Amino acid sequence: MKKLFLNLNKILAIVLLFGLVLSSCEIDKSINVNPNAIAEAKVKSVDGIYGLLVALQVNAADTYTRDRSRIHSIWSWQMCAPPGIGRPQPVDWNDYFMTSDGPTDDYWIITFRGVKIANDIIKFTPEVFVGDNEALGKTIIGIAQTYKALLLGEAAATYGSIPITQDGTNPPAFVSQIDAYKEVQTILDAAIANFASAKAISRDLNYGGDGAKWIAAANSLKARFYLHIGQYTEALAAANNGISDAANNLYGKFSNSAGEYANWGMWVQNEGETIRGEKYFVDLLKSEPGDKRLAEYFKPNADGEYYGFAVHSADLYPVPIVAGKEDDFEQCVRMVKYSQFDESFPLISYEETVLIKAECAARANDLTTALTNVNIIRSAAGLPDFTSTDQAAVIAEILKQKNLELYLEGQVWHDMRRTGTLPEALLTSPTSTNVRWIYGESEKNAKGNFVPADNNNLCEETNSTQYGGKR
């Protein structure tokens, strides 16, 4: 982490110059007198803290929706990269090929850049927002803690063992995946406590400092991360206090202004849509007539037909390949949802919270509650209620609906690892190469022997026994 943490001034320059673009706020220009040497005293000001807060929100949106989203969608067979229409790198992801440079390195760097911003907010805000402004300062700290927990929780899920604290300029120690998850829960508890006396704040791009909405979002995140490691009782309790209305979803915000484009919008519009809907996922959407999400997510071919591209072997698909259609990317669906530059992307949502409640209730054999919740999602999709008295069938339906509902959000990959249902398992000899990301080269080069050796066991808390985990 030396590369990421030692040069505080450079990091602050980057985040302030990039993050403030989206704020449309007048920030003290003296902060950026020398963008390579920002004085700490300037950051420790009202404008400095506000600048960091906006930068953190921008960072979290970029981190969550960047290659993390793209690769997870490919590994869960929601999307794929047909050969011959773009860069070779996404095509390699179809076969779970990953190197220590590129996306795996970038995701690590931007994740811990966000953590660094959050830490600075948490550290400096009590010195700046004092007296009558103390409650406002606690609101800002709570927001920073929530985003920090989001970033660390997703990193723990993706890499396994990660560092969670910084000791001056010393390389921070890596902790086990379970200890990382425990820290995330502690951070979220602290955030909830800080939101108890929340004050309005215009620089909060989602909730404007509304404490009740932030408390609900933090509880939904607690539910997500309990679910990751199979703590279903705790996940249900948190979800019951989570987001209760889709109007209060927490989003990554983007715009049509240059430098503020959504990642998927850029991949669709600037890179020729090299990522397309995969046959496996499109077939799931077509498995019941009337599913409105099919047309919400994709546009059909010139003949009005919805086909996903069959990038894998024909014998791996439950539904036979339609020759001349699903083996020809020109005849396959194109993206509609998340195809625009200014399209917001959910970081945690009501829909995810409902599905967490459904699964946790089903695992406790409370099928009435489970069905009530999964049918909220089915009804919104234009589908009739699902009914069953078979616990396994109800859980399978919930996981299917979560796959369909949380399109491109990456949580389905976590679910599939936890439940042993990765599509790769359809292979005669699954390689299990896609159950965690490898560490990036910049971290290995900076810290040498401090970085654990890449091993799937580092994700044993989130992986099923089928993939070498505990679940």
Question: How are the elements arranged and paired?
Answer:
Blueprint: H1 2-5, H2 8-19, H3 40-43, H4 46-65, H5 67-75, E1 79-80, H6 88-93, H7 103-128, H8 134-159, E2 162-163, E3 174-175, H9 177-194, H10 211-228, H11 232-239, E4 250-252, H12 263-269, E5 276-277, H13 279-285, H14 293-297, E6 298-299, E7 334-335, E8 345-348, H15 350-363, H16 367-380, H17 391-405, H18 411-419, H19 441-447
Helix pairs in contact: 2-4, 4-7, 4-8, 7-8, 8-9, 8-10, 9-10, 10-11, 10-15, 11-15, 15-16, 15-17, 16-17
Biggest pleated-sheet summary: 2 strands, antiparallel
**For the residues shown, what is the average pLDDT?**
89
Strand percentage: under 5%
Rg for CA atoms: 22 Å
Low-pLDDT sequence parts? 1-37
- How many domains? 3
SSE string: HHHHHEHHHEEHHHEHEHHEEEHHHHH
Per DSSP, the total helix count is 19
CATH topology of the largest domain: Serine Threonine Protein Phosphatase 5, Tetratricopeptide repeat
Query: What is the share of helical residues?
Result: 40-55%
Q: Classify the secondary structure makeup into a structural class.
A: mainly alpha
The number of distinct β-strands equals: 8
Shape: globular
Protein architecture, described:
The strands form four sheets. This protein has a two-stranded antiparallel sheet. The two termini are 31 Å apart. α15 runs antiparallel to α16. Helix content is 49%, strand content 4%. The chain has three domains: 286 residues, Serine Threonine Protein Phosphatase 5, Tetratricopeptide repeat; 62 residues, no CATH class; 56 residues, no CATH class. With 471 residues, the protein is mostly helical. The protein is globular, with a radius of gyration of 22 Å.
